[in-house]
Amino acid sequence: MTSSVAKTAPSGSSGLHPEDIRQQYTECPECKLEYNDFLKMPRVLPCLHALCTSCLESTATRGVVKCPTCEIRHSVPNGDIEQFREDETRLFLVNHTKVQGRTPEIACQECTSKKVAKYRCKECAQFLCADCYDAHNRTKVTKRHHIMSMEELRDAPLDDFQPVHYCTVSGHEEQPYAFYCLSESCDRPICAMCAVADHQESKGHDLREIQEVYGDIRRTVEGLMSDVKHRTLSAQDTAVSIETTIDQLDTNLQTTTGNIDTAFDNAVKALERRRTELKDKSHANAREKKKRLENQLDGINFHINSMEDANEFSANIATYGSQSEFLFFKDTIIERLNHLRDEEFDTIPHDNDDIKFKNTKLAEEFNKHVKDMGAIWTTSAYGPNTHVETHDVIVDREMTALNITLFDSEGLQQSEGGVDLRVDVIDPSGRRRAATVVDNTGGDGRYKAIFMGTAKGKHRATVFLHGTPMQTDHVFRVSSPHTVERLNLHAHGETVEKHRMGRPMRTATPSALSDNMSPITDHMLGDVICPGFVLDATTSSPFVEILEEGKTMKAKIIKGSNTRRTGREQGRLALYRGAMASRPIQKSGLYYFEVGIVYKIHKLVRQEHVFEIGLSKLDCIDRHPSVDCHPYAWCVSARGCHVCGKVCLQTWHNGQLLSHTALSPRTKSPPGTFVRLYYGFLLDADRRHWIVTDVKNKKLVFRFKNLVVSEMSEPLWPVFSVSSPEVVQTVLTIKTGRVIDVIPEESLEALAP
């Protein structure tokens, strides 16, 4: 008696079109021929792909067979290809497609006559002709088999094509598998007779009904299939990401090569212009020389002609004239000849033929310059190989919490700078903050995450590479100074110093001001300190002029290309077109100063800088023409806006535009516009707020938050810059110390929580 097992399609599977079945499951992928139960018997490899027996025999080399579908190599067990199990499922799918696909003629598989099959025996899994069908019904062993006609098969479900497995033990041939022995020594299906004779539970065998074991194993397989499906979806997402990256790489490559072509086309044009300039200059010099020489030549030729004419006249009259006539002309002749004899003329050419192209080492120097001209930036940083080293830090002190080293997918360190890295830190209360990532690849080849913890305890950091988080979070502690051992503050100081401008920076103090700068003392107005600083003329940019004892600054025009280099050599600001305060702000408390600005527009250029007022750490100053792009700088600036065509007041931090307000909301800012502004700046070092107010119009402009300023951190320096006077003429005046007599109410009101 057979046990019926309800079979349903695995979860997530779908019906296949007969043609799809034929191509995927009924043909050998190597020889492309249809499987059969003889030489083309399908056998399953460990990768779950199949090959026919003949192809396995022909392709196996030195005990190894290569799957033609996935190209994985498999060892042949004991060198016997029959150890790869036969796949009967593919065989009944072959039969199913033959019938369902309406194959015109199917030959009888029982006899040698190859007559057209009219029936199929399910137990024998063979197609039968009419004669073999009759013989099947007469034979004692087969007459009870389940036989269906071809017409019935064409509408039959897939189950009717599945073979029926019977026990292979001698004497049990008609017994179907009804049980499964789970004992380690067996682990196979058995019939009822085997269960009674050889698989008693009293002998340690573990018997279960085959239907139950099938259900359990099928559920296990379906669970694994679901897991693999999810992994497949993840792999497909990865494939899409890779394809997107490849497409973007092609786009970036096209952009990069276009930029290279543009840059070098411009360089070629510059060379051609220089060639033309030199040729034009050589022609001009030659013309000038030639003109000078030709003028001299004309004078000499005139003198020669005069002398030749005088001699010819004198000779003719002496030869052909009478004596009396000769004597009549004697005075004139003698006077003329004496004059011509004594007349001076330059015997040396007024100019020379010296004109040549000085190309001493030109090719050598040019090739050397071209060799270093431009660079290609790229990175192959691979997130899973990123190495992160954590360090415990002291509470309320900015320190290096993480050192990040990047590697590619092959484990080679990536030391190029400019990689998109972000570090988010979650403190014990669950609050998320961003650490500051410092590019130190030019130093030790790593990136540093600078963090100031305000809460003690474990902090969890997540590193993002190109916006994608690393799979593992990293933990460090924020503790009191005495609990953090072996803390190398000096090393951190060196790191900050390396990120400065690469040159000595002299900073003036009240005791070391230049002669035209008078020391100003601090002034207290209630709880507010009005710091006594001036504009530091000793470090100011060569492009600005400091006036009125360090209180006023305006831009000046300087011609020449060596101004920046000269500025660096003298310890002055080279890139930043402005000045620093004579001393920084560091201690806790409230600090207030004011700045007045007057500017006149000559020509408004898009994004043209008019003025900037900021607070910045020392190492951020003079790395760029502005401090607006640095993580430890906060600034207010006025710029020509390409959107509204006006001068707009903007606030910036770490390269992000925080606010944007037109200074003239109703009108444009055409050339000739004259503007006066007056701003107050109140720093709350305890709450780390910086409040900007419009003193003239009595209104709040902006409130910066989360500034890094304390006695434990590096000081913040007030910085001021102005635009080129060729574009906008700007005069900036500071008001500090005792000059301030009142704090605007708008600033004090903004202090309220």
Describe the fold and architecture.
It is built from 13 helices and 35 strands. With 753 residues, it is α+β, with helices and mostly antiparallel strands. It has four domains: 18-176, Herpes Virus-1, CATH 3.30.40; 213-371, no CATH class; 383-498, Immunoglobulin-like (Sandwich), CATH 2.60.40; 523-535 and 546-555 and 581-749, SPRY domain (Jelly Rolls, Sandwich), CATH 2.60.120. It is flat and about 170 Å long. The chain starts with 17 loop residues before the first helix and ends with a helix. Mean pLDDT is 84; it is low at 1-15 and 485-519.
Uncertain parts: 1-15, 485-519
Instruction: Give the helix proportion (percent range).
Output: 25-40%
What's the level 1 CATH class of the largest domain? Mainly Beta
Largest sheet: 10 strands, mixed
Count of beta strands = 35
Mean pLDDT: 84
Remind me, CATH topology of the largest domain?
Answer: Jelly Rolls
Helix- and strand-based class?
A: alpha+beta
CATH level 4 superfamily of the largest domain: SPRY domain
Global geometry: flat
* Proper CATH architecture of the largest domain: Sandwich
Count of separate DSSP helical elements: 13
> What is the radius of gyration?
48 Å
Distance between the termini: 86 Å
The percent range for strand residues is: 15-25%
Q: How many structural domains in the coordinates?
A: 4
